[in-house]
Amino acid sequence: MSRRVLLIEDEPNIAEAIRFLLTREGWQVETHADGADALQVIQGASPDLVILDVMLPGKNGMEILRELRTLEDMQGLPVLMLTARGQSRDREMAENAGVSRFMTKPFSNTEMLTAVRDLHAQATQS
Amino acid sequence: MRDTLTGSRIRERRQIAGLRQAELARKVGISASYLNLIEHNRRRIGGKLLVDIAAVLMVEPSLLTQGIEATLISALREAAADAVGQQAEVDALEEFAGRFPGWAGVLAQMHRRVVSLERTVETLSDRLTHDPHLASSVHEVLSTAAAIRSTAAILADTQEIEPEWQDRFHRNLHQDAERLADSSKSLVAYLDDSDSAEDRRGVPLEDVEAFFDASEHHFPEIEDGKTADEVDLAELDSATARTLALSFLKTYTADARAIPLTQIKAAVSVAEPDPAQLAAQFSVDMATILRRLAALPKEYLSRPAGLVMCDASGSVLFTKPVPGFAMPRFGETCPLWPVFQALNRPLVPIRKRVVQLGRAAAVFDCYAYAWPQFVGGYDEGPAYRSVMLIQPVEDVQTDDKAVSRVGPSCRVCPNNSCEARREPSILREGF
What we know:
Chain A is an alpha/beta fold. Chain A has helices at 12-24, 38-45, 61-70, 88-97, 109-125; strands at residues 3-8, 27-32, 49-53, 79-83, 101-104.
């Protein structure tokens, strides 16, 4: 059974590039571009991993993550957060919200693939 | 201030001219030992002897007598005060500037540049935090850069890529490159604007303050009897800015009628004006006299006068800047300013000497007064406003216990132990 990633990113060309990269790695990639109903989409899709942008229309990625972590069955879901704001306080805020990995734009493809592989490996081991 | 450096300048010029002390002394008819005393600033010099020496040295006498520009000395003094971990010989500052004017100029110029860059960092940091336009522009640029980086890396690194994907990524790259060019241009245009006189354009209150600043907060036509409605407001772009300006000008007009210019000029020319005494003399309230003093032509007062007005919510309604007293652009000021404390004691004039912490740590006399702007009616509390006149004080010890410590705003205030702090200072992060 293939691994499934849900990519929540409103920037279509970033989403397309990530989709291409992860598909080649054997991931089944589903994309979503709106923050407002992102929580429901995550719950409905039950992915193995979520890549979540911070600046989303409708609802901020940080809020989505906070709400996600209040759900009992979503505590261990690996979430890789993408943001253009890499200041220490943003990182701290993401960690407090329960992020698994935090990545600042612009990132390299290798960095992204390594993060996804690591997070998935950690999740399957635990 | 007595110029103590004429002798040093003579010595410097003599050496430049390649003359020995004895030669110069002989040419102007004095002994070498006397010239030596002059050159070491131990004898004053002026009159014919100075003219003769200048003639031999082939320079204007004024070049020898004019001190090093006060701005240079003051810039060097500031540089010495701001130096971290380095103790400059401040006592020898004038001598240094006199003997090495070129190096002194370079040092002063570098210090001015550091100060200017620090201000830019401060402004940009504040803007990134508070300016939604800038934050979203930066986000747009970084997101587009991220898309370009990923897409370009796919095209460069992927050995076999289907023609369909290749076409799609080429198209995406083209789109993103155009987007990046547009968003970068708009970002640069926005930041460039900040350095121009148009900097403060766009926010109505800031437009109005720029309009008042351009007139140095004084309107001769109103002093001569015209009404506020007759002042030309055409340069204000928005209707909101014109409405605000008219409202402030009406207050100005009322103040000017209550305290005619000729009378206040006479009153303040006698002695250092005491606002409370002047209020009694002109039978006006403290708010009127404080506003009026800030609106006088600058030559009327011995010290510059700045002004801050706020309402009971603490919102700053109007400012007139005064050199050395930082008034943050976004209105999030220090809650310890007397203008806010006056709101707790309406109708009680407050006089407070404050030091504004920060790079300059300058001392100011502040006069503040809060008054009910209107009374709503039965069972409705009055809405208060508060005004503060700010005047710089020189030659004061900043550690004087009578001097209260205030900041500009929390973000750029170095007093980390302040109980009134709202948010951490960026100064802790090394700025």
